[in-house]
Every structure is written in structure tokens, then in C-alpha cells.
Specification:
Length: about 325
């Protein structure tokens, strides 16, 4: 009886003294629901984050292409395509090399893009007026040849500005025999271009060397014919040969320094790093345009055009070129 009274007093202290039966019922339901919430804490289910969109650059594309070349050359390509095992190797090595956890579908989408690029490039190079420069990746032809071809194939406009630096790897990946031997022997002629400063330096060096060799030969002839000369004359002849050899070596060393300087100047002019630095200075550039521009800068012609434009014209030019690139790819 005493316990019952204590429970009643405890319950009465938890409820208003002037509560009506309706208020009492509402209060009772509220307390029941509150105790349930205390006993059963709510759990929030975390939704898996959607896979981020792959943003490809020229360097990432080259990593993928090199991995596919490795699989093709080791015999892991069947019926001109890669099997499940080959794709697993490509995905694993790509993640190790780049630190990006992109799945197989994302890599296969890029594979499809590269295949379209290969077909477009090979069709262009089948024409006799076009040549591929392996050194720069550019496709070389006259303006007239380009204009005539693009009039019939508008999608080839992107190749005119960017070329195809990975064409040799793409031949290995997509040709049926798995190599690019047919391309090298039967396809368009490879053009190995050399910068003009190098040709000038090499030409001067060759002329100087030939002159020194002629002088050395004349000295030897004079020494051989003058067998009756005194020892002093022979010594002077030997000193003459030594002087000629020293001069020739000095000329060759000077030519080598000029050649190295020309290569350095050629590599530093219109560099990718300069383009990226200039790109970072443009305000309000869209992220997709930014990454597309990185692919565009793989072509030296595109880098030269971009850096030569006025500051207020660069963004408009990028929009035009990158829209063509996205339309083709």
C-alpha cells in the first residue's frame, strides 16, 4: 500500500495537477515515445558517393596507352581487343601509376575515344599529301591539302591543330597484327623534322670539318713527298698536323655547344609549363575547358598560337578549339 502511494506521488509530480484526462493521455503517449527513442537510437545510413567523372589529360592518356601497348605486345590481345584478364592488369597498373581509383568502365570509355582518334588519323595519313612527324606528333601537309580534306571531313580539323602524338602506340593497340610494322613499311612516310637552328649549326660544322680534313691530308702528302728534308722540317710538319688537329677539335667542341644551345632554346620556347602558367592567370575559366586545354597543349602549334594571342583573345580561342575537341572525342 505504501509503495502504491509513493508511485502515485511520483507520477503526480511528473504531471500537471490540473491536467484533464485528455492531457493525461497525451502526456502518457509522449513519455512512451520518448522512452522508445532513448532505447533505440536512430542510425543514419550513409549513401555511397557516386563515382567521380574521369578528367583525362594528355599525360594520363599516355599512361593508359603505354599500358595497353604492353598488353598487346605480350600477346594479351584477342580478336583485336583486350580480354578480362588484360583489362584487370591495365586497371591495376593504372591505379598504381596514377593513384586514381578509376574503374574498368572509365578506362574502356577512354579506349573507345582513342580508337576513334586512331581511325580518323589513319584515314588522314592514307592520303598521299599528309605525313606524320614522330618527333612532334604533328601531321604535316600544305594548307591547300588541309583545306581540301577538312572540307570533306570536318572532324579532321582537330588533327590540324593538335596532331596525334600517340599514333605509334595506337597502331600497336588497334592494328590487327598488334604492331605498327605495316604502317612503317607501307603507310605514309615518317617525317623526322629538325629545327632550323640545328641544321644551320650542323652545316657549319660539316664545312669546317671538311676543310680541316683537307688541310690534314695536304700536310700528310707534303710530309710523305719530302723524304729528303731535314729533321727540323719533319718536326715542323708534325707540329702543323698537331695544330690542325687541335683546331679541328676546337671547332667540333664549339659546334657541339651551339647545337646543345639550339636544342635547349627550341625546347624552352612555347613550353607546356609556360602555357599552364598563362592558363592559370585567366580568371573565370571553366574547369572542363581547363582540362581540355591541357590536352590541346600537347601540340606545339597550339601552344605557339595560344601564347602569341592577345590576353583578351586567349579564352575565346580556347572555347573554340576545346569545343571542337569535345565534339570529335
Amino acid at each position: 500500500m505504501r509503495q502504491s502511494n509513493e508511485a502515485t506521488r511520483s507520477y503526480s509530480s511528473a504531471t500537471p495537477l490540473n491536467s484533464s484526462p485528455i492531457h493525461f493521455t497525451i502526456f502518457k503517449l509522449y513519455m512512451a515515445s520518448w522512452s522508445t527513442r532513448v532505447r533505440r537510437p536512430t542510425t543514419i545510413k550513409q549513401q555511397p558517393e557516386p563515382q567521380s567523372r574521369a578528367k583525362w589529360t594528355s599525360s594520363l592518356t599516355k599512361v593508359l596507352a603505354d599500358l595497353m601497348v604492353d598488353q598487346a605486345t605480350t600477346g594479351n590481345k584477342l580478336n583485336n581487343s583486350f580480354g578480362k584478364k588484360a583489362w584487370e592488369c591495365i586497371c591495376n597498373e593504372f591505379q598504381k601509376s596514377t593513384g586514381l581509383n578509376w574503374d574498368k568502365e572509365q578506362l574502356k570509355n577512354r579506349y573507345t575515344v582513342l580508337k576513334k582518334q586512331f581511325v580518323m588519323t589513319k584515314s588522314l595519313l592514307d592520303e598521299p599529301d599528309f605525313m606524320w612527324d614522330e618527333f612532334t606528333g604533328a601531321i604535316v601537309a600544305t594548307n591547300e591539302a588541309w583545306d581540301n580534306y577538312i572540307a570533306e571531313h570536318p572532324d579532321a580539323e582537330i588533327l590540324r591543330s593538335t596532331g596525334c602524338s600517340l599514333y605509334k602506340q595506337l597502331c600497336t593497340i588497334f592494328l590487327e597484327n598488334g604492331t605498327n610494322d605495316n604502317y612503317i613499311e607501307e603507310g605514309p612516310e615518317l617525317l623526322y623534322s629538325t629545327p632550323q637552328p640545328l641544321r644551320t649549326v650542323q652545316g657549319k660544322a660539316s664545312t669546317s670539318e671538311s676543310e680541316e680534313i683537307t688541310e690534314m691530308a695536304d700536310d700528310r702528302d707534303r710530309l710523305q713527298s719530302n723524304t729528303a728534308s731535314r729533321n727540323g722540317t719533319r718536326k715542323r710538319g708534325r707540329r702543323g698536323i698537331d695544330d690542325v688537329l687541335a683546331n679541328a677539335l676546337s671547332e667540333m667542341a664549339a659546334a657541339s655547344k651551339l647545337r646543345a644551345l639550339a636544342v635547349k632554346q627550341h625546347n624552352e620556347r612555347y613550353s607546356i609549363s609556360d602555357c599552364i602558367k598563362t592558363l592559370d592567370e585567366i580568371e573565370g575559366i571553366d574547369e572542363e575547358i581547363y582540362y581540355a586545354a591541357l590536352d590541346l597543349f600537347d601540340s606545339r602549334n597550339a601552344r605557339e598560337t595560344f601564347l602569341s594571342l592577345k590576353v583578351d583573345k586567349r579564352l575565346t580561342w580556347l572555347f573554340g578549339k576545346c569545343s571542337i575537341l569535345s565534339g570529335c572525342l
